[in-house]
C-alpha cells in the first residue's frame, strides 16, 4: 500500500507551466529562446524549423533570425526542481521489501538521442571523432555522435572553446565532409559553429585536400540557403592571411560560385558573407552586370547593398573594372541612386566608385550618365550634408567634371565650388 500510494503521488506531481515546452508539452531538457523571447525545448523547435516553418509557434511572428540562445537559467531551475520533486527516499520496511520494490520498477530508459550531452560525454565523443573518423565503422559512429556534440557546442562559447582545443578535431570534421547531399550540408553547418575566429580550424580548411574543399563548393552551389550561408562563412573564416586569400582568389570555380550568390533572388545572408578579393577575376566573371542588377533590386537589404557597392569600388580600382563600369550605364545609374537613403558606408562606396570612373579614369560616357541621372543635384546635396571630408572633396570633383558634361542648359555654369553654401534665393 505504501508503494502504491507513493506511485499515485508521483503521478500527480505539479509541473510549473513555464518548465514545459509549448510544442511538446513535456519538461524541457535543453531550453533555448528564439528572437521572439519564447523558450522551447531545443529538439522540438529544431524539428519545427527543419519542417520549413519560419514563424514562432507560440506567437506566430515571423522569425527575423533562426538562431537559438540557450536559456541556462531556466535549465538550472528545471534541474533544481527535478531534484527536489524526487523527494527523500521512503524508508523500506525490510531489505526484502526494498529488493522487491526495486524489481518491480521498470528499467531506466536510455537517454533520448535529442537530450544534451554532459561535458564529459561531449568531450569524450569529440575525442572519438578526432581519432576514429578515418574510415569504416568508426566514421559511421563518429557521424552519429555529431548532433549531440553540436548541441553541446551551441550551449555556450566556453563549450566551443573546449571542443576547439581537442587535437585533431578540426581535421576530423573536414574528413567527414566526404559525403553527398544532406550529409555534406549538415557537416558544413557543424563547421560553422566553431570556425569563426578560431585559427586552428581555419588552418585545417586551408591544409585540407581538394576533395573537402570541393564538398564545400558543392554545398554553395546546390545546398539550401542556410547551408550556403554556413559554407560561405566557413570560407570567410578560413581567409585569415594574405596567402590564404590569394590561394582562394586563384580558384576560379570558387569565385564563380560565390559570384552566383550575388543575385536579387539569393538569400541576402549569403551575399553578406562573401569574401571576394580578386579584382581582375571579378571583372572577367562579368560581375559588374550582376552587381548592378542587385543594386536595382527593390528587395536588396542595407548590408547587401553596402557589400555590392564595396565590390564595385574594388573593381573600379583597376583599369578593367573601370572600363566595365563605364560600359554599363544601368549599373552606374544604380550606383548613383544609392548615394542617399542607404547608409553612410554605402554613400562612401558609391561616391568613391563614381569618382574613380568620372575623375580618375575620366571616361566621357560615365560623366554623361551621371549628369543625365541628376548627378549634379545629388552632388550639391551631398556637399551640404554632414559627410566626411574625403567624400565632400570627391563630390566637389564630380560636380566640376559632370556639370561640364551635362547636355542640359548650363544653369549651373557659373557655380563656384570654392564655397558649399547655397542661398535659397
TrEMBL record:
Catalyses: S-ubiquitinyl-[E2 ubiquitin-conjugating enzyme]-L-cysteine + [acceptor protein]-L-lysine = [E2 ubiquitin-conjugating enzyme]-L-cysteine + N(6)-ubiquitinyl-[acceptor protein]-L-lysine
What does the entry give for GO biological process?
protein ubiquitination
Q: Where is the composition biased (Low complexity)?
A: 92-105
Q: Which Gene3D superfamilies match?
A: Leucine-rich Repeat Variant, Zinc/RING finger domain, C3HC4 (zinc finger)
**Keyword Transferase on entry:** yes
User: Could you say which enzyme class this protein belongs to?
Assistant: transferase
Kindly state which keywords UniProt assigns to this record, in alphabetical order. Answer: Repeat, Transferase, Ubl conjugation pathway
Identify the Pfam families for this entry: ARM_PUB (PF25598), U-box (PF04564)
The pathway to which it is assigned is: Protein modification; protein ubiquitination
Q: Where is this region: Disordered?
A: 89-122
Q: Which GO terms describe its molecular function?
A: ubiquitin protein ligase activity
Per the database record, which ranges form the U-box domain? 14-88
Per the record, the coiled-coil ranges are none
Known EC number(s)?
2.3.2.27
Please give the start and end residues of each transmembrane region: none
Q: What does this protein do?
A: Functions as an E3 ubiquitin ligase.
* UniProt protein name: U-box domain-containing protein
Lineage runs: Eukaryota, Viridiplantae, Streptophyta, Embryophyta, Tracheophyta
